[in-house]
Amino acid sequence: MRVLVTSEKDIASQTIKTVLIEEYGFLPTGDNFEENPILSSGDSAILITTKRDMIYCDHLDNHFDAEVFIFCSRHRAESAKPALLVHSTGNLGTEALFGGNPQEVSVSAPSLVSVALKRLVVEKQERNLDDFDVSLEVTHHGPTSMKTPMIFIELGSSDEYWVHKEGARAVAAAIMDCVQEPLTAESVIGFGGTHYASKFNKLVLEKGYKIGHIAPKYALNDLTLEVVKQMISRTTGKVTCAIVDWKGMNAENKAHIFPIIEEAGLEIIRDKNA
User: Fold this and answer.
1) 126 CB contacts (<8 Å, ≥6 apart)?
2) What integer is the mean pLDDT of 128-147?
3) For residue 63, what is the DSSP state?
4) I need a labelling partner for 23 at 20 to 30 A (CA). Which of 82, 188, 229, 247 fits?
């Protein structure tokens, strides 16, 4: 069973929830979670609503025997640029300002990240969402401690777009693709570049890579061997290599992170050679 997560505190998730009910046949099961009805779509997925902000939902493992948690989330950015985004979660450094624990990453689901990004690109084109950016984001924020794989699929980036029905339909379509996509697949992890991971977008969309955790340039110098090992072990499917955004890191980054990746047992591949 795959569990779709929405929140009372998240306007975008409630917009996405409405689309899932209206267009994908989610119906009440008769059970509740945190005083909200649990909905289901056949035997493949249930839809829950939490009273918490989703970045603080490390407790869900205690309530659901899920195969995957798929978070239907808002994205907030100062630019307020409309966006359709997907990413794995975790705190790569010593701070945990937005949920989860420091230096801890969640269990990523690269095959779902890949299928979600591809579907968001298709939905952007088919729904004429020309103003929307579609992108992977790097690993950031909570939850981090659950044992169940998870993925965030997000509608952004301001109040205006959190209620954007066509944007919510695009996210809902990606979510439903993730309900059906198998978890088992060879995958890679990524290092370097910006928060919106343009180099890794191309690797997924053009070369078919399935990518889990991504550590951006701004996090590289603080990465430890233990966190890199987590990026590998807390990923569904076998991690075959580390792909680096070569131009998206400086000499200091490379001197710090390359020995750590090699000690963790992974081959380093430059993005142009991937």
Assistant:
1) none
2) 97
3) T
4) 82
